[in-house]
Amino acid sequence: MTKYIGILTSGGDSPGLNAAIRGVGKAALNHYGMQIIGFRDGFRGLMENRTMALDASNLSDILTRGGTLLGTSRDKPHRMPVGGKVVDMTDVIVGNYHDNHLDVLVCLGGGGTQKNALRLKDKGLNIITLPKTIDNDVAMTDITFGFDTALGIATDAIDRLHSTAHSHHRIIVVEIMGHRAGWLALGAGIAGGADVILIPEIPYAVESVAEAIRERSRRGKTFSIVAMAEGAISQQEHEELQAAKKEKLANKAKESKKAEAEDAPETQYAEKTVRLAKQLELLTGLETRITILGHLQRGGIPSAADRLLATRLGTACTELINQGHYGVMVAARGDGAKAVKLEEVAGKVKTVPPDHPWILSARHVGTNLGD
Ligand code: F6P
User: Fold this and answer.
1) How many CA atoms does the CB half-sphere of 86 hold within 13 Å?
2) Percent of the chain with pLDDT over 70
3) Does a structural domain hold residue 137?
4) Are 47 and 14 part of one and the same domain?
């Protein structure tokens, strides 16, 4: 019996999505004789039954393209904005899955997508996910596709900022994406030789950062690059957050609302970056500028490593479908792939452990981490 695959991309886009769609699709069509259909704009397209036929012609020439040919959205099946209201559309989605005679739905996404996928699995659907995000914060996988490309872009930006910061004897604070995880800022900060790296996992003291910069000035280095993760927080903010969490934990209903908010992209990041730049200018006497890399980090062609990763996870996904192995995320493990139960992934965030080798390396080369 021919198997029918549905596929969608959900959450923020990420370099390598097209390579993954191609990997799943080409293996399905060419190797296993399956059929595949795309749904546009994430779970919203599945809810509205907006489909895209995927065949040899449109799966071709997409390996090197950024973005996702299917389109994406952050809509969740159980909290879908419809006609000015937020509605639970899970049953409609389940209905459309069956109406399209799908044997499996492949969802390409980050942490939020893993949770939504598990909800659909619990409704009886056959689901497989692939881990994508430039943030690299999906649990149980060595790496996510999109991360390597963004790492290259952010590193290139830090390289370029060096010469202008040097010429003007300035501090440049460069804000790097990553949501609540510091992988991207830490990786790019180390690779680009940032003098200070601030990540959410290590709350910073502004005086420690300022002193590191003043010390550089005393050694004749009259410029500094601060790589600041968008989710980085000061020690004071950390304490306030902990206190707020304690209070909310006392109330379970409020806690579930908080979980929803944690999936949402933050809009306040830039304010914190501007504030830090102003503080550093005051404390060091050095002129300070900020650079917010923003969505540049998600755009353009995927790196070779991301194309390779997305292709191997995509083809491994189709192999699992052939075996009828559902309810899993296809995780990257070493050079291969491993099926991990959605229950083990959903709701978890992979942050940078304080004793991670990258942290130790950064400290050993003399980088200030704000603590
Ligand atoms: O999760 C990927 C990511 O790029 C985060 O690094 C960032 O905080 C967020 O998405 C931005 O979301 P949006 O594209 O919706 O503004």
Assistant:
1) 4
2) 95
3) yes
4) yes
266 Cα nearest atom in ligand 1: 8
Q: How many Å separate Cα 31 from the centre of its chain? A: 30
pTM: 0.95
Question: Catalytic amino acids?
Answer: 135
C-alpha 122/C-alpha 93 separation (Å) is: 13
Domains in the chain, number: 2
What per-residue string of b and e applies to 31-51 under the rule 16 or more CB within 10 Å gives b?
eeebbbbbbbbbbbbbbbeeb
Q: Whose CA is nearest to atom 9 of ligand 1?
A: 265
Please state the φ and ψ torsions of residue 192, each to the nearest 5 degrees: -95, 0
In a domain, 140, yes or no: yes
Residue 13, domain CATH:
3.40.50.450
Tens digit of pLDDT for each residue in 187-245? Answer: 999 999 999 999 999 999 999 999 999 999 999 999 999 999 999 999 999 999 999 98
Q: Which atom of ligand 1 is nearest to the CA of 178?
A: 6
**Whose C-alpha lies nearest to ligand 1, atom 10?**
12
